[in-house]
Amino acid sequence: MKRLSRRTIVLGGLATAGSVVAPWHTAQAAVPFPFKLGVASGEPAPDSVVLWTRLAPSPLNADGQGGMANADVTVEWQVSTNERFSSLVSAGSVAARYADAHSVHVVAGGLAPDSDYYYRFRAQGHISPVGRTRTAPAVGTFGRDLVMAFASCAHYESGYYTAYRRIAEDNPGLVLHLGDYIYEDAASAGSVREHLGSEIVSLADYRRRYAQYKSDPDLQAAHAAAPWLVVPDDHEVENNYANMVRADSSPALTAAEWTARRTAAYRAYYENMPLRPSSAPSGNAISLFRRVRWGQLATFHMLDTRQFRDDQASGDGWKVSTDADLASRSLTGAAQETWLLDGLAQHYGTWDILGQQVFFARQLNSAGAANMDAWDGYRASRSRIQQGWLNRGVRNPLVLTGDVHQAWANDLKADYANPASATIGTELVCTSISSGGNGTASTTIPNVSNNPHLKFFSDRRGYVRTTISPTQVRADFRAVASVTEHAAPVSTVGSFVIVDGQPGLRPA
Ligand SMILES: [Fe+2]
Q1: What distance in angstroms lies between residue 436's CA and the mean position of ligand 1's atoms?
Q2: What is the pLDDT of residues 128-165, one digit of tens each?
Q3: What are the chain's domains?
Q4: What is the CA(178)–ligand 1 centre distance, in A?
Q5: What is the pTM of this model?
Q6: Which of 382, 449, 455, 376 lies closest to 414 in space, CA to CA?
Q7: Which residues contact 41 (CB under 8 A, 6 or more apart)?
Q8: Which residues belong to any copy of the Phospholipase D N-terminal domain (predicted)?
């Protein structure tokens, strides 16, 4: 269902390309500043990008409406090649609707491929902060080398968003967020900073939780620095949920109330993310697995491993199990698996990058048990995808993962039980932005004797910065010294390269 006016989608804009325009002046605005949640962009294509903002002069109001009256508001937008907006390449206006919590998703078109742009909004006599964005290279061209940062898991109470700030400072061309952008749990006393209110259940609750998170200036800086590609994990709805099955019985909800909660969660997710209008949810479902092509350089296959999975064999518990125990379980669902394998068969880009949520490589603990919430709990599903990319001659499969709040770098194996078997791909696991608190300085790989294909580990918070070129991907594991103290320094705690045509990790 489209919940945006036709004027939302302005392809090419209202201004003549390259035209010099009268500057925007801030009027003597009678209302408070409405851009307190910042600006964002996402879903870059060779000729367009999504621009996002949400009006909220009082972001933390309990009704989730951010202090806006029950009326629609016109929001103007501009895209320029320079930060002064002295000439425009695209511009228009859009209705920010009360029904959408005054969020807007503008598809700004008429842009040139592999180009940098600046954008801003104006509403109610106020001008927003300026964001920087970028388009993808044209089909068949490599474009510039791409600095892409990826991250996940930003529990607000666990620490400050220094890692988001450091991502912005790296000036990436693209950011991937792999889930747990918010957490649903109630305030817990004594945290570094506290959630507002009880566990979130209603649409107003979810809207206010996003507003609390998005009020953070470090998060706003990361959004303003580059376009994002986002996929949710469980906590955008509820811990460890699987398809229509709740793993968590608190608070008690009837089936109808759970469906209403999921509907609210995905509606608020869409409202608060720079997604295309085609991703707007329908009821309690949202269509998020998608491909974003980055010219000849890379293809991003963004997966949704929550909405279509079979229920976990043991929640997110660890369990000793056999292949036969788990043979019928799918993590992606049949339709998404077919879509992924069909896309991998196209060989669109040099690097086929799977942006997804949960640990992909086999990982056994000292007792031989594996995490049933991750691909180890759905190992037939994993085998079909690995064999699928082998059968289709995929040159450079690279899996990106969030969820586990630790950094890992893994070789993917044809047969995890046989360390001598072929390395057939590579996995990079970002740690968390803040979830889990400071962590430790340890880089000792846990249970490495059971998992010789796991090559790197760090227990600090941070992100992974990749530099993607036609000949290699370089991965720098970035770690912040602390998340309980604001503005801690960042350092690189591990670096690897993956060479074109040669799956697996090499020291940088
Ligand atoms: Fe998480």
Answers
A1: 9
A2: 999 999 999 999 999 999 999 999 999 999 999 999 99
A3: 7-134 (2.60.40.380), 289-430 (3.30.750)
A4: 10
A5: 0.95
A6: 382
A7: 49, 50, 51, 52, 119, 131, 133, 223, 226, 227, 228, 274
A8: 37-135
